[in-house]
Please model this.
Amino acid sequence: MRQFILEKQTVKNGLVSLEGKDFRYLRQVLRVKVGDMLNVRLPDGKLQNTTVAKIDDKAKKVTLQFCATNSDDEVEKSITRGVQSSQLEGKLPLVEYWLFQFLPKAQKLEQIVRQATECGVAFIIPVIGEYSEKNSLYALEGNKKERIERIIKEARQQSGSPVDTKILSPMTLQEALELWNQKNDEDKDLKALGFVLSERDDCKDNLKKVISENSGAGRLAIAVGSEGGISPEEVSLLEEKGLFHPIHFAVNILRCETAALYGIAAVQSAIN
Model:
C-alpha cells in the first residue's frame, strides 16, 4: 500500500481516529503497530505523513497523529513498501484523463475500473452502447456501486494515485458527449483531446502524430468499446460531436478490459 485514503474524518489537534472498516483494514490487513508511519491522502487531496499514536483494540479504534513535516527520514520509516506516494508528488504530468468505457459485463467493468484508477484516470464514464448487454446497466446499482467505490479506494491506496477517481452513472453516448463538451466549454483555457480505439485498420489518424500536433493538451479522453466493440455509427458520432480521433493499434485482437488498459498506457506514454 502506497497511501491510506482518508474520507470525511475530522482532524482535531493534529489527530484523527479511525473506526469500522478503516480500523479493520489497518489492523487486520496492514497490521499496524504504535509508532508505525503512514502516508495519508486527505479529503482535499493533500498528502501527509502520520504516526500511529494509539491503538485501542477493545474500542476498535486507531488514532493517527499528523507529522509536522514530510521528511525523508519519515518516508524511510513508513510501513508502506517501495516507492511511496510522497515520492511521486509533483513528478507526474498534469493531465486530466477521462475514460469513456462502453459497458461490458459487470466483472470486466470492475477490472477496468481498478486498472484505470491505478493509471490516474479522473473520470470513468460508463457508456450504454449498441453492443452493451442489458444486464450491464445494473452494474452500478445498490451494493454493486458501493463495491465499485471500494475498488477505487483500494486501487488508489495500492498505486499511490493522487487523482480522486470518479465513476459516473451509466449514460448514453449522446449524454456522455454532451457532458464532455460542456466541461470543455467551461474550461476553455484547458486544451482537450479525444481518442476512440478502433478495431478497423482504416483510421487516418496516428496517435503520436495527433499528440504532437496538439501539444499541451490538459484534458484527454479515451473511448473503449465493450465485448462487441463500438459500432461504426458510434465512432462517427464520437468524431462529429466530440472531435475524437479514431486510432488503431496494430496488435492482436484485445479483450475490452485489455484494450482499456492498453489504450490508456499507450496515450500516457506518448504524452509523457
The mean pLDDT is 86. The first strand starts at residue 4 and ends at 5.
